[in-house]
Design goal:
heterodimer; A: mainly beta; four-stranded antiparallel β-sheet; B: six-stranded mixed β-sheet; five-stranded antiparallel β-sheet; 0% helix
Chain lengths: 113, 111
């Protein structure tokens, strides 16, 4: 069966520090992968998605970047965090058969201080 | 542009039915979804409906789709305290393999 792993679960980082969040998927090959951010009390904002290794689409200009070095690995990064980067970050992959819905990771709660 | 809208809050009495409404803009959306998010957790797919269906029922959940008005609703029968969560409406868009989410409706249950 397919599973998605996301870590760490929580992270507190100072302003100006770098960021690396990792997401991996098991049990499937060539998945479409997504990074979403959920600010406190708000909905989901699509940040990046990837349809294959090295292929990244950015939805909004921001202080973040994404990379996909391997088929089932998706990384969200920043060189220098801002206070506004705080939020709940969710990785997801899409089922390309059946209902085409997402399966989400458990999320990373990032607090920039 | 692509947009999904839903009300932010809903309060219902335990045992009553909850109805959460959603509108979307892209008439070519193939699938529409309802996700549930409990505090501090990721999103869980509750149910989905294909665009050629009007209704789908799954135990206490009923999804109604009005394609003409681009309106989707989720009815939860006999609402329980465990149903307290944020419910997200979402729709696929034909421009890419991505799903656009609404802002979420926070459902609270009162005794």
């Amino acid at each position: 069966s397919q599973t998605i792993h996301q870590w760490p679960a929580t992270l507190v980082q100072p302003v100006g520090s770098p960021l690396s969040l990792e997401c991996t998927v098991e049990g499937t090959s060539n998945p479409n992968l997504y990074w979403y951010r959920q600010a406190a009390g708000r909905g989901l904002q699509l940040l990046f998605y990837s349809v294959g290794i090295g292929q990244i689409s950015s939805e909004v200009p921001q202080n973040l970047s994404a990379s996909r070095p391997q088929d089932r690995q998706f990384i969200l990064s920043s060189k220098k965090l801002l206070l506004s980067d705080s939020g709940f970050y969710l990785c997801a992959w899409i089922h390309l058969q059946g209902h085409y819905g997402y399966t989400f990771g458990s999320g990373t709660r990032l607090t920039v201080v | 542009g692509e947009d999904v809208e839903q009300s932010l809050f809903l309060s219902v009495r335990e045992g009553d039915s909850s109805v959460i409404n959603c509108t979307y803009t892209d008439s070519s959306s193939t699938y529409l979804y309802w996700y549930k998010q409990e505090p501090g957790a990721g999103l869980q797919l509750l149910t989905y409906i294909f665009s050629n269906m009007d209704m789908k029922q799954d135990q206490r959940l009923t999804v109604l789709l009005n394609k003409k008005d681009k309106h989707l609703s989720l009815r939860i029968a006999d609402t329980q305290t465990g149903d307290s969560a944020i419910y997200f409406c979402a729709a696929t868009y034909s421009s890419a393999s991505k799903i656009i989410f609404g802002s979420g409706t926070r459902l609270s249950i009162r005794p």
